[in-house]
């Protein structure tokens, strides 16, 4: 029998190699279904800039290094990086000091569609290699760019090499589904469900522990990589309820029509109960307390700001009264973030059937979705202690 520890490693590595937002530029791609994330990020720019104001500015002879962790493959990451760099440039200019050169690392799991992301990058304006001329050029980027594939739950960069870490809408993705959740012999077995919203207490506790273990690994790695005087700005799905089985907006996204669509496939004989139960979305929306406990226990970081922020709906529709558009938006949104995992679990044909049912059910509940589907985010600004 394979040792239990080895199972955990294989599960972890398998998810790490597989997980990604849906690539390309098609209707169900992340690039075309991340407008809500863009709106939510823009609503938090004042908090991001507060964090940037606290970053220590080193000599302009030393490149300023920014990392976006969980960059995915749309234009949102490019927009945020541009905001960060322009704000830092203004700070240097306020000191009457020429800005340094900038390096940006876009990081995500190996399965991420880096090709689509890099195609969206504006050209680098070098004009003979002068960064001053580069910074003044319109429709060009003012930074050197590179992609870094790998899990942010491990080290990714040399020690004391990064000035600013930014991560938005990523830390709620776990490194793995807790092993006990898909173990039929365990009290935490999430029978009949594909997410922890409404699950039993043991399953929810397994998810909570996995989140806190992962976050501790994340903080340990960043504590090695961040420069003294650097800062992190982190945003992930959060919840206002103390009960981890109430996942709020994430629960409505993955625990209602998505869950019912899986049940449809079972009832129609297209998949077995066991096939459904062996699939779980590796997402956990923490409470403020869940997050704070880990940061304080780790001890590497001082908390500059830690709050729950009302983000709004993940659905962006042109015609709110058009139930079909609302249903399609929910299905596409759900598919853009979970479609790769679903495809791998049940195959492309059944995945198509599943999301067709998600769309149909969401269309029938369009008014309710628009009224109730609301995301909250944990926003954290951290500096080395």
Automatic annotation (TrEMBL):
What InterPro entries does the database record attribute to this sequence? MeTrfase_7 (IPR005299), MeTrfase_capping (IPR042086), SAM-dependent_MTases_sf (IPR029063)
Q: Which residues form a coiled coil?
A: none
A GO term for molecular function: methyltransferase activity
Q: Which UniProt keywords apply?
A: Magnesium, Metal-binding, Methyltransferase, Transferase
The region annotated as signal peptide is none
- UniProt-listed GO biological process terms: methylation
What Gene3D superfamilies does the annotation carry? Methyltransferase, alpha-helical capping domain, Vaccinia Virus protein VP39
Top-level taxon in the UniProt lineage: Eukaryota
According to UniProt, the name of this protein is: Indole-3-acetate O-methyltransferase 1
Species in which this protein is naturally found: Cucumis melo (Muskmelon)
- Gene designation: LOC103490122
